[in-house]
From TrEMBL:
Keyword field: Nucleotidyltransferase, Transferase
Lineage of producing organism: Bacteria, Bacillati, Actinomycetota, Actinomycetes, Mycobacteriales
GO molecular function, one term: glucose-1-phosphate adenylyltransferase activity
A Pfam family recorded for this sequence: NTP_transferase
CDD domains from the UniProt entry: NTP_transferase
Enzyme Commission identifier(s): 2.7.7.27
Protein name in UniProt: Glucose-1-phosphate adenylyltransferase
Transferase listed as a keyword: yes
Mannose-1-phosphate guanyltransferase C-terminal domain: residues covered: 256-349
Length: 364
């Protein structure tokens, strides 16, 4: 019945797609898959897993491919998070649709909630499941509105909220409603996805379902939403979690302008603002200025250096009075004193820039 109470828990499985290569976040994704990069000091996936647990779903299947082993090494059977985690690995990436189809043998229920593994969101997952149940849809898509839909799946709906088209990354979007990367499937619609080959859920599965007349419902809301696929979004998303703008049940407690994790050292006179996070064992020197900085574990920012809207990789070092703005510094890199890294600069892991070795001005 349409007004049946929603049943989650054992009857609803979650599937998280985490097999992408995270190319736009290189060089950070050379050593870790995108969903494992620390956001506000915790692996990104931990925030999503906590939201899934909070919604009452306990069985979660991770669809892995690129750097598959890292996930299981970190999360194990999921008991620490109150979850039962399963892992299914694609030896060759099967795409988003192929990845969903590939986990079919692990699914237990008739309702499957699928997540892109790189979306920081605040949607009420229970409400998405309610829409799916009350509209008796075959598939329900969570949709949000963005100012520029061209980088996403554009998803127009009719007056009843039913999806009329799915246009992945179109140059001429007919609406600002986009695919937020969270779907509810009736199990048989996963069984229909062709097996044994790469399939895109966005370019093949959804357009075919719509052409065949399946009931694909949209669930639109105004929740916090950000795809974490680029350095700019990753930095903003991390800062939003630190400040409490993006909800995360994985990090309970008060939020403020910065977050310093255990074992980190911040010298007196350092300024930490803009949602800066200082990872475990990281060090910040006297008079350093960190504004919207993401310091991974073991990173060091020396005295008088400035880091703005940038990611400093595991164990990387920013020398005294260096300036790092809108940049990504790879794991273990060393940025010498007074160097200037600006405007989209990406330093590869282990690179050693000597003191004063890269500047945009002629003074030393
Ligand atoms: N298992 C598996 N196998 N996972 C994959 C594969 C694969 O072959 N390819 C990608 N993924 C995972 C990625 O790890 C990521 O979590 C998710 O699928 C989406 O891939 P992205 O590469 O991040 O896609 P996108 O951001 O360009 O676009 C997608 O997300 C947008 C919302 O964030 C699409 O679903 C768009 O329609 C959507 O608007
Ligand atoms: Mg993405």
């Amino acid at each position: 019945m349409a007004d049946d109470p929603l049943v989650v828990g054992n009857s609803t499985d979650a599937v998280i797609l985490v097999g992408g290569q995270g190319t736009r976040l290189r060089p950070l994704t050379l050593s870790a898959p995108k969903p494992m990069l620390p956001v506000a000091g915790l692996p990104f996936l931990q925030h999503l897993l906590a939201r899934i647990a909070e919604a009452g779903i306990t069985h979660v299947v991770l669809a892995t491919s690129f750097k598959a082993e890292v996930f299981e090494q970190h999360f194990g059977d999921g008991a620490d998070l109150g979850l039962e985690l399963d892992y299914v690995t694609e030896t060759e990436p099967l795409g988003t649709g192929g990845g969903i189809r590939n986990v079919l043998p692990k699914l237990r229920g008739d309702t499957i909630m699928v997540f892109n593994g790189d979306v920081l969101g605040g949607a009420d997952l229970g409400a998405v499941l309610d829409t799916h149940a009350s509209s008796r849809a075959d598939v329900t898509l969570h949709l949000v509105r963005v100012s520029d839909p061209r980088a996403f799946g554009c998803v127009p709906t009719d007056e009843s909220g039913r999806v009329t088209e799915f246009l992945e990354k179109t140059e001429d979007p007919p609406t600002d409603q986009i695919n937020a990367g969270c779907y509810v499937f009736r199990r048989e619609y996963i069984e229909k996805i062709p097996g044994g080959r790469a399939v895109s859920v966005e370019r093949e599965v959804f357009p075919v379902l719509l052409a065949e007349g399946a009931h694909v419902q949209g669930h639109v809301d105004n929740s916090y939403w950000r795809d974490m696929g680029t350095p700019e979004d990753f930095i903003r998303g991390s800062a939003d979690v630190v400040r409490g703008i993006a909800p995360s049940p994985a990090l309970p407690g008060q939020r403020g302008e910065f977050l310093v994790h255990s074992g980190a050292g911040v010298a007196p006179g350092a300024l930490l603002i803009g949602g800066t996070v200082v990872g475990r064992g990281a060090e910040v020197g006297a008079g350093a200025r960190l504004d919207g900085a993401v310091l991974f574990d073991g990173a060091r920012v020396e005295a008088g250096a400035t880091v703005e809207r940038s990611i400093i990789g595991f164990g990387a070092r920013i020398g005294p009075r260096a300036l790092v703005r809108d940049a990504v510094i790879g794991d273990g890199a060393n940025i010498g004193a007074r160097c200037e890294l600006l405007n989209g600069a990406r330093v590869w892991p282990g690179v050693d820039l000597p003191d004063g070795g890269l500047r945009f001005s002629s003074d030393v």
